[in-house]
Amino acid sequence: MSPPAILAQHRTLPVVDELAGLFTDGGIRQGSTIEVTGVAATSLASALTIAVSHFGGWVATVGLPTFGPSAASDLGIKLSRWAFVDHPGDQAGVVIHALTAGVDLILVGPDIKLRSDHGRKIVARMRERGASVITVGKAAPCNLRPDLRLRVTQAMWTGIELGHGRLTSRKVEIERLGRGADSNLRRELVWLPNKEGRLNAFNRKNKPVNLSQSPHRVSKRLFDIDEPVCRAS
Amino acid sequence: MTCDQLAVVVDNDRVVDITPAAIGYGITLGIRRREAQKLCADLQVVLNDEELSVRRFSSVIEALESVTPRIEITTGGRCSFPTRGPSRYFGGDQALAQTVVERTVRVLSAMFETDEVPSHIYPKVGVADSRFVAALAATSETSSRIQVVVSGRSAAFLAPFPIDVLVAKESPLSEAHDLVDVFRRLGLRTLGDISSLPNQELLARFGSPGLLAKQLAQGIDSRASLLHSISNVVSEESEIDPPTDHVETAVFVAKAFADRICQQLAAEGLACVRILVEVETEHGEISSRLWRHERRFTPTDITDRVRWQLEGWWKSEMAPTGSLSLVRLVVNETIPDSGYQLGFWGEKTANDERAIRSFTRIQGLLGPDSVTVVQRGGGRRLANIEQKVPFVAVNFDPNRVVNLPESTDAPWPGRLPVPLPIAVLTQAKKLEVVDDDGRLVRVSGRGHMERNPAYFKSECLGAHLIIGWGGPWFLDERWWDSAKKIRQARFQFLLDNDTSHLCVIENGQWWLEASYE
Question: Are B395 and B348 in contact (CB under 8 A)?
Fold first, then answer.
C-alpha cells in the first residue's frame, strides 16, 4: 500500500510560538495567502517569517523598498536567506510567479497590483509548489483571495511622552479572521517590538508600570482580552 | 600588506592565509574568523579575493612557462607542474627548483620595482612524489626556500607534521574539519600516527575520507591512483561569431560549455579536477592554461577561471592584438564523483538551488540589480546601516550567499537606539511640524526649541495630532568636510493614528526619514 499523499495545504511553514496561536495548524499553511493590515503591518508580516528564516527557508519581498533589514534582524529574523525585489514595476505578476517556484514565503508590498489572470495563475502555482504569500496591506489589489486575515487592531507605544522619553516598546493586539476551519476569531497580544527590538509574547503579570501611566491612553479601553469577543460579520 | 602586520585572509569564514606576525598569536589555518579575532584583537581581516590574486599571479605563470608548458594553476598564488621532463632537462630536481626560483624572483622584482624581493613573498619550491607532499615541502617552515623530498621518502618526511595540514588549502581533504577534529580528540596528533593505523579500521570508522587521510599521510597521491580515463574526451569548443573584444561575451560562451561539461561528467559519475582553457583570437594568438581544483570544478568555478585567464591575458605584456574568436574547454583530469550530501540547516540545501534559479530568472527579466540581499554596514544614519547589494555581486555559490558579513555591532556614538524603524524611506520626504498656533517648530544651533510640536503635516501621511514626541537628538557628521557635512536634529513622533515616525530637521526643513510600521 502506498503511503497517503500529503497535500500541500496540509503542510505548514513554521511560525514562532508567540504567533502560533493565530494559526489553526500552528503554522502558515503552505500555498495559502495571508493578508496583514493595520498599524504594525510590516512588523507583523516580518515577524511571521522568523521561524522560516531560521529553518533554512527562503523569504523574498516584492515591492517593499522601505523594508529596514536592521529592525528585522533585531526582531529575530535571519536575513541570510532573504532576497528583495524592490521595484518590480509592471512585471510584478511574473516576478511573484517566478518566486513561487523558489522561495517559501513571499512578502508583497502595499503598492503591488496584479491582473486577475495573474492572480489566479499565482494561486495555482503556490498550491502546487507550497509557497505562501503574505500581503502587507489589502490583498484585493493583488487579486489574491486571502485565506487568513491578520489585522493589528490596537498598537500602543510605551516610553514616549509629550517632550520626553523615546519609543521603547509597542504592545500590539492582533486579530485573526479566516475562512472554513479558521473562521473563529482569535486574538493575540504581543510586544512588537519589545525594548530589545524583539518579538515577545505579552505576559499580563509583568505588565510594565508606565503602560497605565500613559496619559493620552487612559480614556480608551484597551487589551481587555477577557471581554466577550464579538464575531465580525 | 607586509609581514610584520597582523592580518589574516578569510574565505567563507575560515582563515586561509596568515601573516608571519599573526602566527605568533597562535592563529592557524582553518580556524574561524571569530576564533582568530579572539586570539588577537588587533587582527586585520582581509576577505579572500581569488580573482585579484590570480590576476597578479599570472605574470609569474608566464615566467614559468619558459620552464615547462604544463603548469597547473590552483588559486592562492600556488601552481604545480610534473617535474620528470623539466628536471632531466635542467639537470636534477635541485637545479630545476633553483631555476624556478630565479625566474620567479626576476618577475617579482620587476613587479614590485625593487632589486631585493621582500622575504615574505619570496618564492618557495617543493619537489616531491605527490602534489600534497610537494605543497607541504614548499610551505613548511624551513630555513631553505627549496625543499626536495627524495623519491620514496615521503612517508618519513610527512610523519612529524601535525594533522592540521590535512585541512590545508592544497589538500583534497580541505573541507574535512570534522574528521580532523575527531582525530585530534582521539589523540592522533601527527600524520605519522594516522599512517600507522590499519586500513580496515580506518575505513570502518571513518569511511573513504579516513582512508584518504591515511593515503595522504603516507604520501600516496590518491589522485594518481584514482586517475580515471575518460571514455571519450570531454571537450567543448565554439567559434565566437562575430569576434568580440569583450571578455564577458567569451565568458558567457564558456558558461554554457561549463554547464554542459559538468552535466556530461555527472552523467558518467565523474567530477572534473583539471581543465584546459584555451582562447584564440582572430590573429591566431592563443592563450592556453591548465587549471586545477582541489576538489571538483563547478560550472561557476570554470567560468571564473576563464574570466581570470582572459583578464590576465589582456593585461599582460603579450596582450592579444585581435578580437576573441574561439573558446575551448577540455577536461583534462577527472575523479570519480563521490557525490555530496546536501546539507541540513545552515548549509547548502536543495532550497537554495531552487531559490537561486528563480532569482536568476527575475534578474533576466528586470536586470541584474533587481534582486538584492542584505549587507550591513556601520554608521549613525539608517541609510548607512542598511545596505542592500545586488544578488549577483555576492558570489553565486549559495554557501557564500548565506555568509553575509556579520553586522558591525561597534558602538557608534549617536546611532539610533533600539528598536529601529522597520520602514526606512530611501528618499526622505518633506513634512511640516507646527505648534498649537500653527507656527513652524524650529531648533536652534544649541538645541533649544522655542515651541513644542503639536501637529504633523505631510503629503503622504496627511495631517495628524502629535500625541507623543521625543528629541531633539543631534547628529553632527563630517563637520570637517564642508561638502559632505550633515547637521541634523532627530525626533520621534507618535501620532494620533497610532503610527510613529522618525523625523529630522535640517536647516529649518523637516524630513520624514523612517516609520515604525
Answer: no
Condensed to tens digits (0 to 9), the pLDDT of residues A54-102 reads 887 889 999 998 888 878 888 888 887 888 999 998 889 989 998 998 8
pTM of the model: 0.54
Place of cell 625566474: B103
Nearest CA in chain B to A79: B374
- Which candidate from B422, B466, B470 shows the least CB-CB separation from A167? B470
The Cα A99–Cα B145 span in angstroms is: 55
CATH number, domain A12-151? 3.40.50.300
Backbone angles phi, psi at A204, to 5 degrees: -65, -25
What's the CA angle centered on A39, arms A33 and A42, to 5 degrees? Answer: 50
Which B residues, 25 through 84, put their C-beta within 8 Å of a C-beta on chain A?
none
**Look-up: residue for cell 500500500?**
A1
**pLDDT per residue as tens digits for the range A156-191:** 898 888 888 888 889 999 999 888 777 888 888 998
Closest among B256, B269, B341, B265 to B300, alpha carbons compared: B256
Structure ipTM over 0.90, yes or no: no
Grid coordinates in use for A230? 464579538
Q: How far is B378 from chain A (nearest CA, A)?
A: 11
What is d(CA B516, CA B418) in angstroms, rounded to the nearest whole number?
11
* Cα B305 to Cα B326: distance, rounded to the nearest angstrom: 16
- C-alpha cell recorded at residue B481: 568636510
Q: Would you put residue B46 in left (φ > 0), alpha (ψ -120 to 50) or beta? A: beta
Contacting residues of B for A163, CB less than 8 Å apart = 452, 469-470
Show the cell assigned to B21. Answer: 606576525
Q: Which helix (H) or strand (E) holds B57?
A: helix B50-64
Q: What are phi and psi of B388, to 5 degrees?
A: -105, 135
Name the residue ranges covered by the structural domains of chain A: 12-151, 152-208
First to last CA, chain A: 45
